[in-house]
Write a structure and sequence with these properties.
CATH topology: Rossmann fold
CATH architecture: 3-Layer(aba) Sandwich
Order of helices and strands: HHHEHEHEEEE
Shape: globular
Distance between the termini: 22 Å
Number of helices: 5
Helix content: 25-40%
Number of strands: 6
Radius of gyration: 15 Å
CATH superfamily: Vaccinia Virus protein VP39
CATH class: Alpha Beta
Strand content: 25-35%
Number of domains: 1
Structural class: alpha/beta
């Protein structure tokens, strides 16, 4: 998992530059959006740099996103999405102590 996450972070700069700008992906995202009923909240899991966020904002009042990359989550936050970086390890180490990562239930109308 660490190697995959390291590559994902390494490739994050390219994704920030290109996410949401490809015409083929834009048309695909538009078709997906047409299949979704409108609602109050939407959570985009694996949101990347937030390229889908402007389209989701047309249909939902609150658009949130989660991604493994902190770089991509920050980029998604600049595109009108409330984005968070996912912690994949249920326990992370802070020095010698173990710190449990809190889990919260979040209500969403749609999950992508």
């Amino acid at each position: 998992m660490k190697a995959a996450r390291a590559f994902y972070e390494f490739d994050a700069a390219r994704r920030v530059r290109h996410d949401g700008r490809d015409d083929l992906i834009y048309r695909r995202n538009r078709r997906v959006l047409d299949l979704l009923p409108a609602g109050a909240r939407c959570l985009d899991v694996g949101c990347g740099a937030g390229g889908f966020a402007p389209l989701l904002a047309e249909r939902f009042q609150v658009v949130s996103g989660v991604d493994l990359s902190l770089t991509l989550a920050k980029a998604a936050s600049t595109r009108g999405m409330r984005a968070l970086c996912a912690q994949t390890d249920p326990e992370r180490r802070c020095g010698r102590r173990r710190v449990a990562v809190p889990r919260r239930r979040v209500r969403r109308d749609r999950l992508l």
